[in-house]
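User: My collaborator sent over this chain with a note saying "see what the structure looks like." That's all I know about it. Can you take a look?
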Amino acid sequence: EGYKKYYSTESGTLRPKLADGKFLTPFNPRQGENFEEVPGFHEGSAWNYTFFVPHDVDGLVKLMGGKKKFVDKLQMVFDSTLYDPANEPDIAYPYLFSRFKGEEWRTQQQVNRLLSKYFTDKPDGIPGNDDTGTMSAWALFAMMGFNPYAPAEPLNTLILLCLTKWKLIWAMAKCLRFRLSGHLLKQFMLKICISVANL
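Assistant: Without extra context I'll predict from the sequence alone. Here is the result:
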């Protein structure tokens, strides 16, 4: 929970501290965009790191003042183009909406937008550096319709698939199959059926 010491209610972000324990001043939470040098953050701004607390999202929600303030602030990150799809600290941001009942549609909306805008079949078809497959894996999970957004928890977010069907085989000879059936007219998933079988 050490991240809580770096949360500034003034900026509404994580904020570097000096050796005497005071917050860095002056401070612009947007500084660091486009990989600009900035104290306290590497290759990103405070906005790229503030929601990156995958081990304690519930604690961060409480720190920010509850679900509504958390969701509103996260939505503002996307609406104000503070989200950077080319950098790992914030690539799970779209999936954070799914932690809250009634806000899952925001995850679907942002993932659809990001896939269509930043991931193409052109030579520069991924945002930034693939960093050993990180960006490609993000796109693949999104197209498969799920994402393991919280590494500290055994949870996945489910969204509408881009692929009509796929099969995943993993250790212990288990097989997970997803399939879209019927004519898909909806933009958001209403129901999903999953089958897990032994091979």
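A starting point for your reply to your collaborator: The chain has six helices and seven strands.
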